[in-house]
Amino acid sequence: MAANARGEGPEVPKIVWNESQKRFETEDKKAYLQYELRDGGKVMDIVHTFVPTSKRGLGLASHLCVSAFTHAKSHSMSVIPTCSYVSDTFLPRNPSWKSVSYSMDPKSNI
């Protein structure tokens, strides 16, 4: 990752919530996380994450996921990790976000 303007470590990309498109995306709109709302808006189903080849390896997919999970948590939503990146890579690497994941087990929501 590139250093920020002050040379203080990696630059954190700005992620924008595009509510009308149901996406979290980089400012240039080239990398994004697509979601669908379910259960009357109480559940965010993350269906796709895309990072173009030219931007891979910079941690953008992870930043997109953190933005989506943070948004869901702050709006008392659960997340369904339909996207394979989220379920197979992001959540295993970031187990603290599993508490936001949707569960059909009624006991887990008590």
UniProtKB/TrEMBL annotation:
Annotated ranges, domain N-acetyltransferase: 14-102
Origin superkingdom: Eukaryota
Alphabetized Pfam families for the sequence: Acetyltransf_CG
Gene3D superfamilies: 3.40.630.30
Official protein name in the record: N-acetyltransferase domain-containing protein
Organism ancestry: Eukaryota, Viridiplantae, Streptophyta, Embryophyta, Tracheophyta
